[in-house]
């Protein structure tokens, strides 16, 4: 009887793992496109607890003739590394092209 519980436990753990992997956005982003930076802004964010510097990158990319835009915020003042017009790789979900992320080396 104890062996049955072990087998059922492995089956349940496998089902949970597969469900978790199915819902991961990054796994569904299997295609890539060439994107171009259209804006890059440095800013200082202040709250009552902290102060931090951020760089907001806005990138546009084409998929099947449709233009999409994506934004990514990275920590620090790094706008010099991302001038307007620079090419970046964008990973996206082929069935839902607006589900994407910018790949930064």
Describe the structure.
This protein is of the alpha+beta class. 24% of the residues lie in helices and 51% in strands. The protein is built from two helices and five strands; from the N terminus they run ααβββββ. It has helices at 2-22, 25-28, and strands at residues 31-46, 51-63, 66-75, 87-93, 96-103. It has a five-stranded antiparallel sheet with strand order 3-2-1-4-5. The longest helix has 21 residues, at 2-22. The model has no long low-confidence stretch (mean pLDDT 85).
Distance between the termini: 52 Å
Classify the beta-strand content into a percent band. over 45%
Query: What is the approximate shape?
Result: flat
Unreliable stretches (pLDDT < 50, length at least 5) are none
Strand order of the largest sheet: 3-2-1-4-5
Please give the count of helices.
2
Structural class: alpha+beta
Roughly what percent helix?
Answer: 10-25%
Task: Give the overall pLDDT as a whole number.
Answer: 85
Q: What is the total tally of β strands?
A: 5
- Alpha carbon gyration radius: 20 Å
H/E order of the elements?
Answer: HHEEEEE
Q: Can you summarize the main beta sheet?
A: 5 strands, antiparallel
Give a nutshell description of this structure.
The chain is an alpha+beta fold and 105 residues long.
What descriptors fit this protein?
105 residues, five-stranded antiparallel β-sheet, 5 strands
